[in-house]
Amino acid sequence: MSLYEELEKAKNYSDIFSLVKKAVKKSLKEHRVGLMLYLGNLPMRVGAFHPIGTNDVVLNRRLINALKSEVKQKSYLFSILLHEYLHSLGYHDEEQVRALTYKISVENFGSQHPVVEASIAGPWCELTQEDYEAIEQDIDLEMIKDFEKIEIGYII
Question: What are the residues facing 37 on neighbouring strands?
Fold first, then answer.
């Protein structure tokens, strides 16, 4: 089954993240385990972040919830998680990470797939003025259980 088909069938963050890892392994021959995903109410201009030196990725719950189409939501999730996964692999330069996100997306989905569009434009082009004006008082972090499916043992 192609990554395109697997993304269509993905049901949760874990499913999408496993596709991110497959794509990176195929394109860059790099891999790591042990990441944890948190959802938080971040400012709308922030898609996600990976604090350097941690196993954490914090994804903007408000931004993802503002995306109405399931196809676009999965595509943007793939792109954002790919971007943050690359940071977790040691790529810290934003321009390099954006370029790699695009390259990996094209190599694994073809140039016409919504994932490639997401890697170029980001989810902000889908938002309305009301989405930007909505204010959350608290970051309200929520850990996503069973985010990463690990098939081998390791020690953190």
Answer: 57
Q: What is the pLDDT of residues 98-140, one digit of tens each?
A: 999 999 999 999 999 999 999 999 888 777 777 767 666 678 8
Q: What is the pTM of this model?
A: 0.88
Whole-number Å distance between alpha carbons of 19 and 6:
8
First to last CA, the chain: 32
| Two tokens, residue 36 | 């944890």
Q: Which amino acid belongs to residue 69?
A: S
Residue 49 CB contacts under 8 Å (≥ 6 apart), including other chains: 42, 57, 58, 84
> How far is the C-alpha of 127 from the C-alpha of 124, rounded, in Å?
5
Instruction: Measure the CA–CA gap between 81 and 126, rounded to whole angstroms.
Output: 18
Tens of pLDDT, residue by residue over 12-44, are 999 999 999 999 999 999 999 999 999 999 988
d(CA 107, CA 124): 24
- Continuous H helices in 39-124: 61-66, 70-88, 94-109, 114-121
Question: Residues 35, 82: contact at Cβ < 8 Å?
Answer: no
- Output the CA angle 84-89-91, nearest 5 degrees: 75
